[in-house]
């Protein structure tokens, strides 16, 4: 009886390492809100990118160290809502939308509400949806698009009042992309623990060098291209575009095409490899 009681108490504990990264991301998102309220828009945008890095690390650390838990998943979702929902919405409102009146705060609200809906839908589809793709633009990528735009605008001293309507349109559109059915590559099929060619490491070094030259504009352009890739991939991998391919409450599979062909090619390759090993 004593061992059972000790085991129950032990299970109520919280894993430190992955939740430490989650807390760091939450702190970065909260810092972005405070900085934007004080007019420090560039610092706020950078803080959102830091939150994005922390969000990418907490899940991977949990899997690598076998410290996954229901508490960690829920805590991560709550932190994401602050860092990638509230923080970008408040940041973009304070930067360019507050002079637009209702149009400004409605555009920011569309983004914030879409982030909440995107996270809720993602949580209900864990273990069901195709892991190779996201259904809709992921909230960290959406936040990075908004933050990258503001970081670039602040660095190049662009007057936000001159582009406020454009910013409102981009903000609302980014929110709608999050709740769309467009398919975005998740890059979860990458084996981070596997071996790679030496040339791959050289290319990664080159990427870091290129980004460091003009991080604001390069990251901004990169996430704009990623946001556009969803509609492109969806249209390319279906025979006939329908309403449910754009918006809906169920995950949409490609009609056919390159994704299914790619799956068959992988299966054939696996079977050939297995045959060779048996021989």
Can you walk me through this structure?
The protein is an all-alpha fold. Helices cover 71% and strands 2% of the residues. Strands 1-2 form a two-stranded antiparallel sheet. The chain is globular, with a radius of gyration of 21 Å. The protein starts with a helix and ends with a helix.
Compose a concise summary of this entry.
The protein contains 10 helices and 2 strands; from the N terminus they run αααααβααβααα. The chain has 279 residues and is an all-alpha fold.
Topology:
Layout: H1 2-11, H2 16-37, H3 41-64, H4 70-97, H5 102-124, E1 133-135, H6 139-155, H7 164-178, E2 183-185, H8 198-213, H9 215-236, H10 258-278
Antiparallel strand pairs: 1-2
Helix pairs in contact: 2-3, 2-4, 3-4, 3-6, 4-5, 4-6, 4-7, 5-7, 6-7, 6-9, 8-9
What string, H for helix and E for strand, traces the elements in order?
HHHHHEHHEHHH
User: Tally the helices: what do you get?
Assistant: 10
Strand arrangement within the widest β-sheet reads 1-2
Shape, please? Answer: globular
Q: Outline the low-pLDDT stretches.
A: 256-261, 263-267, 269-279
Q: What fraction, in percent, of the residue positions are helical?
A: over 70%
Q: What structural category do the secondary elements indicate?
A: mainly alpha
Oligomer: single chain
> Could you give the distance between the termini?
54 Å
- In total, the number of strands is 2
Major sheet attributes: 2 strands, antiparallel
Estimate the strand proportion: under 5%
Mean pLDDT: 84
Radius of gyration: 21 Å
